[in-house]
Amino acid sequence: MSKPCRRCLLKDISLEDYERLIRDGLDALPKEDLAEDTISSGRLQICKECEKLNQGTCLACGCYVEIRASLKKGKCPYGKW
Ligand code: SF4
Description:
Bound molecules: iron/sulfur cluster
Radius of gyration: 13 Å
Number of strands: 2
Oligomer: single chain
């Protein structure tokens, strides 16, 4: 499988490549910077019920929520978590 282009729009990559992009992003983070799984999954549960969530990104800040929620220092721009 080819590596997704870093300059492509999401509409130009497949769902499979998009998921890999997120996974690779998570894998690249220093382990010491990661929150515990229970914390990140609790955060993502809040995101899933938030009107700002749009296809894995936060409309308030533009981040990929799965990456932001995985960081110890990650914060919701609306203070929801
Ligand atoms: S980070 Fe905050 S504002 Fe953004 S989708 Fe999650 S809960 Fe909503």
